[in-house]
């Protein structure tokens, strides 16, 4: 039986003494509890981050000069995923640049893309 001043760890159920607002018996239990709580969200976020990092690596690999023209086939061949980006920039003329961090691309005619690197401000 748990006394009024004893609580149970939310993760392992161990009896605890100490502060009234204490929820876990150790840092390990606290971390384990929060990891379980956020597992689905964390897995999704990790997947998206991995796709964005791969897209960035592909753009860096293909754009060695800072401004390069490549075909959509070449991007697809390298595993680029057009569904994931970090930002967009619309010019005064209405051209839309898509970016994965500082690496970007602009759709041209006939499945060609202009690859660019965003300059530091």
Task: Report strand %.
Answer: 15-25%
Low-confidence stretches: none
Coarse structural class = alpha+beta
Strand order of the largest sheet: 3-7-6-5-4
Radius of gyration: 24 Å
The helical percent reads 25-40%
Q: Tell me the count of domains.
A: 2
Average pLDDT figure: 91
Secondary-structure element sequence?
EEHHEHEEEE
Query: How would you sum up the global shape?
Result: elongated
Question: Mind summarizing the main beta sheet?
Answer: 5 strands, antiparallel
Roughly how many Å apart are the termini?
A: 64 Å
In total, the number of strands is 7
Total helical segments:
3
Q: What does the secondary structure layout of this molecule look like, with pairings?
A:
Layout lengths: L6 E2 L6 E2 L10 H11 L1 H24 L4 E5 H6 L9 E4 L5 E5 L2 E5 L4 E6 L4
Antiparallel strand pairs: 1-2, 3-7, 4-5, 5-6, 6-7
Give your account of this protein's structure.
With 121 residues, the chain is an alpha+beta fold. It has 2 domains: 31 residues, no CATH class; 77 residues, no CATH class. 34% of the residues lie in helices and 24% in strands. The strands form 2 sheets. Strands 3-7-6-5-4 form a 5-stranded antiparallel beta sheet. A hairpin with a 4-residue loop joins strand 6 and strand 7.
Short structural summary:
With 121 residues, the protein is of the alpha+beta class. The protein has helices spanning 27-37, 39-62, 72-77; strands spanning 7-8, 15-16, 67-71, 87-90, 96-100, 103-107, 112-117. 34% of the residues lie in helices and 24% in strands.
Keywords:
alpha+beta; five-stranded antiparallel sheet; 2 domains; elongated; two-stranded antiparallel sheet; 121 residues
């Amino acid at each position: 039986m748990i006394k009024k001043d004893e609580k149970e760890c939310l993760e392992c159920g161990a009896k605890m003494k100490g502060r009234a607002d204490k929820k876990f018996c150790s840092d390990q239990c606290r971390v384990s509890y929060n990891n379980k709580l956020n597992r689905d969200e964390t897995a999704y976020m990790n997947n998206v981050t991995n796709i964005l990092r791969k897209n960035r690596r592909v753009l860096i690999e293909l754009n060695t000069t800072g401004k390069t023209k490549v075909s959509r086939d070449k991007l697809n061949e390298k595993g680029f995923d057009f569904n994931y980006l970090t930002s967009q920039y619309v010019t005064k003329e209405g051209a839309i640049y898509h970016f994965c961090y500082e690496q970007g691309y602009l759709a041209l005619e006939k499945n060609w893309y202009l690859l660019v690197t965003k300059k530091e401000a």
